[in-house]
Amino acid sequence: MDLPIALVPELAKRGEKRRADELFERVAGLYEQQCKEYPRDGGAHNSFAWLAARCRRQLDRALTHAREAVRLTPDSAGYLDTLAEILFQRGEQGEALRLMRRCVELTPGREYYRRQLKRFEAGDPKVDVIE
Predict the structure, then answer these.
(1) pTM for this one?
(2) Whole-angstrom distance, CA of residue 25 vs CA of residue 52
(3) Which of 28, 49, 55, 113 is packed most tightly, with the most Cβ within 10 A?
(4) C-alpha span between 29 and 38 (Å, rounded)
């Protein structure tokens, strides 16, 4: 997943929108197919949602998948993080902050969630995720 997450925005930035769209659609289609074949697999739903969130594409569809992943595994900090990221990208900062605080509660030793929380508090969804 890291490769399309890196390439799709880079291609778009370099004026290769068609290639970026094709790459995203191809990879997203694979994840969506996995969701159809294994509808109770939270990981599949989360993977589609994370790809879309990081590529800043199809956020409505991503939201549906992220919510399903959280419904299936409500205490997964990783799934909550994905849902929070999508909400943040959609401008729903308050709900994104609430979910990110829950991630910090669930995994207090994981610095990544603290950095995400600070990023959300700053309020600019265009600032990239710091992994």
Answers:
(1) 0.94
(2) 10
(3) 49
(4) 14
